[in-house]
């Protein structure tokens, strides 16, 4: 069966219809949150109109009981693929019109300070370290990308599959590698992506 620019099997159509009904009833502004979806700390999560997820996504925020300060902020018309995990303890901000492939991890926190803590301490007992993470507008993240705490992916950027973003990057870049580095930047004078020297 052909629906929404895709060919769906009957079972996929039924699952999508069920997810659509649940989304409309329970999740304001979202377009489609495919089930199953795992949401922890919902009062600290905001998303704009048109937000859409794939299957098995995990959105979580950490905070004390009664804490409703937004920590995961997702803009309008963002579409994320299957098995995307986003964890926010301080703040993860995602801009408008972003497209994420599957199996992506985005976080603003880490278990332990690598400078101050002993590696013999059980990871669960280590202090939670945080630093805000930002993804700009019109960003495309490829398959298996990791965006780690304190990182920034600038507006209009593309992050290649399997890249690990560990620092802050300017707007209009193509990033690749582990750790990620700039391989091209968009030149608005020539209207082309150009290799970095």
From TrEMBL:
> Is Transferase included in the keywords of this UniProt record?
yes
Which keywords has UniProt assigned to this entry?
Transferase
Pfam families, alphabetized: Hexapep
Statement: the UniProt record of this protein carries the keyword Ribosomal protein: no
Q: Which SUPFAM superfamilies match?
A: Trimeric LpxA-like enzymes
Q: Which domain of life is it from?
A: Bacteria
Kindly list the GO molecular function terms attached to this UniProt entry.
transferase activity
Matching InterPro entries, A to Z? Hexapep, Hexapeptide_acetyltransf, Trimer_LpxA-like_sf
Stored CDD domains: LbH_MAT_like
Q: What is this protein called?
A: Acetyltransferase
- What is the originating organism of this protein? Enorma shizhengliae
């Amino acid at each position: 069966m052909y629906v929404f620019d895709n060919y769906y099997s009957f079972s996929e159509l039924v699952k999508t219809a069920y997810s659509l009904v649940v989304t409309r009833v329970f999740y304001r502004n979202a377009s489609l949150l495919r089930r199953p979806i795992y949401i922890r700390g919902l009062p600290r999560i905001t998303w704009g109109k048109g937000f859409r997820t794939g299957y098995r996504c995990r959105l979580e925020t950490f905070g004390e009981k009664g804490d409703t300060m937004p920590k995961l902020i997702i803009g309008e018309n963002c579409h994320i693929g299957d098995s995307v995990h986003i964890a926010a303890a301080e703040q993860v901000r995602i801009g408008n019109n972003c497209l994420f492939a599957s199996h992506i991890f985005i976080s603003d926190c880490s278990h332990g300070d690598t400078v101050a803590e002993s590696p013999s301490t059980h990871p669960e007992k280590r202090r939670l370290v945080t630093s805000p993470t930002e993804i700009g507008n019109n960003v495309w993240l490829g398959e298996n990308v990791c965006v780690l705490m304190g990182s920034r992916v600038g507006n209009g950027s593309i992050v290649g599959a399997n890249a690990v973003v560990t620092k802050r990057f300017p707007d209009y870049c193509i990033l690749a590698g582990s750790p990620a580095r700039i391989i091209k930047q968009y030149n608005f004078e020539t209207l082309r992506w150009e290799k970095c020297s």
